[in-house]
Amino acid sequence: MMPAPMEQDGYNLRLYVAGQTPKSLAALANLKKLCETHLPGRYTIEVIDLMKDPALAQRDQIVAIPTLIRQLPEPLKRIIGDLSNAEKVLVGLDIAPS
């Protein structure tokens, strides 16, 4: 059985936020913009609001918000902040060379 395209070369991203704060909203907007520009059709974004389920912070070892976790492709990578520095985010996600 052939894996779905997302499983082959897609990016599975999880963004941890705490409600609708300016930093959280900026992080989500910046992430969507970067993904649409550099990964069109090859990404999924899951937004986890820790205000609704704070136990997930401990499970996933979140110490600051917003935090972006790249789950796939492996290895797992974390980026903390509002993701406004596009160059650092692209390098951090291994989308652009360092």
**Overall body shape:** globular
- SSE run: HEHEHEEH
Helix content: 25-40%
Mean pLDDT: 88
The number of helical segments is 4
Radius of gyration: 13 Å
Taken as a percent bin, the fraction of beta residues is: 15-25%
Distance between the termini: 35 Å
Sheet of most strands: 4 strands, mixed
Query: How do the strands of the widest beta sheet line up side by side?
Result: 2-1-3-4
Unreliably modeled segments: 1-7
By oligomeric state, this entry counts as: single chain
Structural class: alpha+beta
Strand tally: 4
Describe this structure in words.
It is a single chain. The chain has 98 residues and is an alpha+beta fold. Helices cover 35% and strands 24% of the residues. A four-stranded mixed β-sheet has the order 2-1-3-4. The longest helix has 17 residues, at 22-38. It is globular, with a radius of gyration of 13 Å. The N and C termini lie far apart (35 Å).
